[in-house]
Design goal:
Blueprint: H1 3-28, E1 36-40, E2 43-47, H2 49-81, H3 88-112, E3 123-128, E4 133-141, E5 144-152, E6 158-166, E7 177-180, E8 184-190, E9 198-204
Antiparallel strand pairs: 1-2, 3-4, 4-5, 5-6, 7-8, 8-9
């Protein structure tokens, strides 16, 4: 089999692989992915089978890109040796590079949404009464402000037990008044910048 046929075959297979990955990602995005939460290095880290799948998508993309660049180099060298004009096959391979990059991006977006936790610049603050530990994760983006309250267990696993909301993307920067009890806690915080803006959220331990 000559080089031209090999290039065509690899191009076709890779094109089909990109379409299959896109279709599978879209299908899998409809399947629930229960996440386990863990408090690690002052961050709430989420794990689910989506993480494993997105790693596969990235590996496939990297393999495709490596193949494409190898094809481009081999094709150019072959055409120079045979004094043939460099045009269609190289251009199509370049198109496939862009196509694979775009389809992989959409595949990852299907699995993780266009907005991720990092877009909200989460910041965690830990509090304890020496019996129970909670973490308040503040988030904000533009006019959205709020956060999630987690109970941290002995193995550092985290459970969601409440949430807070603030106006105009405001943050409390860890300034909370907490009253502890055996069954839960009352968390008082500033929900906006106006007078009498204090609000209290009651949470119960699991």
């Amino acid at each position: 089999m000559n080089l031209k046929k090999i290039i065509r075959k690899i191009q076709f297979i890779s094109f089909i692989v990109s379409l299959v990955v896109l279709a599978v990602s879209h299908r899998l995005s409809c399947i629930p992915a229960p996440a386990t939460l863990k408090y690690v290095n002052n961050e709430i880290v989420s794990h689910s089978w989506h993480d494993f799948y997105t790693s596969i998508v990235v590996v496939i993309l990297l393999v495709q890109l490596a193949l494409y660049f190898a094809l481009i180099i081999a094709d150019i060298v072959n055409k120079i040796r045979n004094r043939v004009k460099i045009c269609s096959s190289v251009s199509f391979t370049v198109f496939l590079v862009l196509f694979s990059y775009i389809t992989s991006g959409f595949s990852l977006a299907f699995m993780d949404d266009f907005w991720t936790d990092d877009d909200y610049y989460p910041q965690c603050y830990m509090f304890t009464d020496n019996k129970h530990t909670i973490v308040i994760e503040e988030r904000s983006f533009l006019l959205y402000g709020g956060g999630t309250i987690y109970q941290i267990h002995d193995n550092n696993n985290a459970s969601v037990i409440g949430s807070i909301f603030t106006d105009d993307g405001g943050r409390n920067h860890g300034r909370y008044d907490i009253e502890w009890s055996e069954i839960g806690a009352e968390i008082t915080y500033d929900c906006c910048d106006t007078e009498h803006s204090r609000q209290t959220e009651k949470v119960y331990f699991k």
